[in-house]
Specification:
This protein has 375 residues and is an alpha/beta fold. 33% of the residues lie in helices and 14% in strands. The structure holds zinc ion (ZN).
Length: 375
Amino acid sequence: MAELLSRMNVCEGMSPLPLFREFAAAFFAVSALALVHQPADAVAAPAASSTCCPADVSTPAPVAGVRHVVLIGVDGFGAYAWEKAKIPNLRFLAANGALTLNARTVLPTISAPNWGTHLMGAGPELHGWTSNGARSLEPLVRNERGLFPTVFSIVRAAHPKAKLAAFYDWGRIHNLLDTDVLSHEVYVGCLDGKITRFKRPREHPRAANAGDSPRGVKRTDQELVEEYEASSKEVTAAAAEYIEKEKPLLSFIYLGALDETGHKLGHDTPAYYTTLANVDAHVGRILEAIKKAGMEKETVIIVVSDHGGVGRGHGKNSKLETQIPWLIWGPGIKRGVTMNSAVLNTDTSPTIVRLLGLPQPQPWRGKPVEEAIAK
Ligand SMILES: [Zn+2]
């Protein structure tokens, strides 16, 4: 319930971030790298060698052929649902990529702590997002924008001109992105009953997440679910358009509808599987955009979730809440492999920088999912 209430008040507690942009991101990423112990065979990291000071971590070679990474985040996708679901596109990616249905969330099993963990390579005890609300714990390390280093900060520092983009339909994602280093940001919300694209949450004072009834308006759970379904479809459309046109180096596409269905109509219900099938169609649309852009042989897709659920919620430590899928597909990735490695949400960002041949910053605690990478 706390999760639900928090989602419903999504716009509260947000503060505009200062406009530092790429220079600040590069500065911080290099500063973070400078904290790392230097192995004997260290080579200069691209960011450090091109800006100010030597990096002191070894730089991994990029995974051959990877020129784009698309991270798809499906809120509330419990691993329990995989076998029963009608998800042909996800099954295609798994059959030709690497999958574990035994990945684990960090705790608590709620959204912002885990999305922060996916994007920041460390858990809530370090990045500070211990709840969906205002950050209750100071990040152990901050950049000039007050954020723990995100995958976007690190990739931006190494690639000042690259296209980096995020698309999402839950406003609190904005807080976790290091948004000023992005080339393109789309928040899909609801304005006066219409699904609408915004550059950021609160761009319009009446913009709200889909599924949040305006004050004094009573709607059924089914109507609220359908509205969130429409917003996730619009997120997908915005992302597909951008991918086809701009061929971004790194994209994050967050789809909130499945969690909304879990909260309003229940996990592991026919309605949940209907929404999951729709999410799968969105994955298919993204795959189609990648093909249209001519990026199919150069793009790694990673599909992750923040938590599962039981009944109409999540937040506790049951297997249904903590066990989630983690899927990766693309060049340099093993094909048709069910992975045995321990995979935690901390590992997503380290895997992305590993694919791109960038050293991970010292504060990150995750590890690349090496088992997925073809040698
Ligand atoms: Zn969530």
